[in-house]
Amino acid sequence: MNITWIIGFVLMMVLIVLGILDGGTMEMFINIPSIQITVGGTIGCIVATVPMDLLKKTGKLFKIALFPPKYDAFQTINDMEAYATTARSKGLLALEESANKAEDPFMRQALMLIIDANDPDKVREMLENAMETTAERHEQAASIFATGVAMGPAFGMLGTLVGLVIMLNGMADNPENLGSSMAIAIITTFYGSMLANVVFAPLENTLKVIHQREELCRNMVLEGVMAIAAGANPRFIREKLEFMLPRNEVEKRAVKKAEN
User: Fold this and answer.
1) By C-alpha distance, which of 100, 126, 135, 129 is closest to 115?
2) Neighbour tally for 59: CB within 10 Å
C-alpha cells in the first residue's frame, strides 16, 4: 500500500478542515450547485477528452496508485549479476530455465532474446521500442488525472462566473444578500482548487513516479542483457548498473550488506 499517499491526503484534508473551522463552519463551504458545476464539469470534460478504452482503466489506475507494484533496482542488479554468472560459466542456453522463472515479463523477454542468439543491435532496438511503447501508454494513463488538474480550477472559475451573474442580477431585489451571494459564487473556485490539488495532482504524480521506477529497472535489464550477450564479467555488469543509481544509495546498501 502507498502509505505516503494516504498520509499526505489525510494531512491535507485535516489541515484544510482546521483552517475552515478557525472562524467558520463546514456548512459555509457546502453548496450543491457549486459541486455540480465543478465536479460534474470536470468529470464531463475528462469523459469527453479521454478515449473510452482508457476510461475503463480508471479504477485500475487508482489501484496502482494506492497499491503500486514494487520495482527494486538493487534486486534487478542482483538478478543481472546472477544471470551473468550462469551465462559465463555454463553458456547462454543455461539461462533458459532462469528466464522462464523470471516474474517480470520484460526481463523474461529480454533474456529469451539473447538466449536465441539474436543480433544484439536488433535485440536492443526491440527492447527500446518496447520501453517507448510502455512510456507512451503510461503517459496516456496519467493524462486522465492531468486533465483533472487542468480542468478542476477552470470549472471552478466557470462556476464563480455563473454565481456572479446570478448575484448581480439579484442585487436590485436583495442588496442585503450581496455578501452571502458573493461567498457562494467564490466557493466554486475553492472546489476546483481542491479537486485539482488534493485529488488529481497527487494521483498524476504518483503514477509518474511509479513509471520512473519501472523505467529505471527496465533500463538496467536492457544494459544488463546486452552486457551478458557480450560476455562481460558479472562484477563489471554490477558496477555498470550501480552507476545508474545515486552513489550514496549504493554505498549505504554496501555498508548494510557488510554489517549483515
Assistant:
1) 100
2) 9
CA distance 131 to 136: 9
Round to whole Å and give the CA distance between 181 and 186. 9
Give dist(CA 44, CA 27) in Å, integer.
26
Cα(58)–Cα(115) distance, integer angstroms: 38
Q: Is 97 exposed, middle or buried (0-12, 13-18, 19+ CB in 10 A)?
A: exposed
CB 243 within 8 A of CB 227: no
CA distance 22 to 15: 11
| Alpha helix (H) residue ranges in 92-119 | 96-101, 105-115
Neighbours of 126 (CB within 10 A): 14
Distances (CA, A) of 203 to 14, 44, 46, 151, 195: 19, 18, 15, 15, 11
- Taking CA atoms, 111 is separated from 77, 96, 124, 236, in Å, by 14, 8, 12, 18
CA neighbor of 123 nearest in space, from 134, 111, 105? 111
Which of 135, 138, 130 has the alpha carbon at shortest distance from 107?
130
Say which amino acid occupies 181: S
Q: Is the pTM above the cut of 0.90?
A: no
Q: Which pLDDT tens digit goes with each residue over 190-228? A: 999 999 999 999 999 999 999 999 999 999 999 999 999
DSSP 54: H
Least confident of 84-93, 196-205, 235-244, 247-256: 247-256
